[in-house]
């Protein structure tokens, strides 16, 4: 599956089939974009940090970089406890 080859993913969505959990999560999730993190950090390392702000469904970091050459990623939350605190 091309998508799984192009990103590092951790969470329930990482092992789900295309028509299963990931698509249900997409309908109910809040996505949060993040960037500016060290090269050696993996999605599993970030999971506990993001879990402080709500129920995390998936954390993924694409293997590609942005136009400035920086890594980026997304967290999909099933529930966000404090959105204002998350943005800080």
Automatic annotation (TrEMBL):
Cross-referenced SUPFAM superfamilies: RNA-binding domain, RBD (SSF54928)
Q: Which Pfam family, any one of them, does this sequence belong to? A: RRM_1
Q: Which GO terms describe its molecular function?
A: endonuclease activity; exonuclease activity; RNA binding
Query: RRM domain: from which residue to which, for each copy?
Result: 30-88
Sorted alphabetically, which keywords does the UniProt record give? Answer: Endonuclease, Exonuclease, Hydrolase, mRNA processing, mRNA splicing, Nuclease, RNA-binding, Spliceosome
Instruction: Identify the GO cellular component terms for this protein.
Output: spliceosomal complex
Would you kindly state one Gene Ontology biological process term found in this protein's UniProt entry? mRNA processing
What is the protein named? Endonuclease/exonuclease/phosphatase family protein
Q: Which organism is it from?
A: Trifolium medium
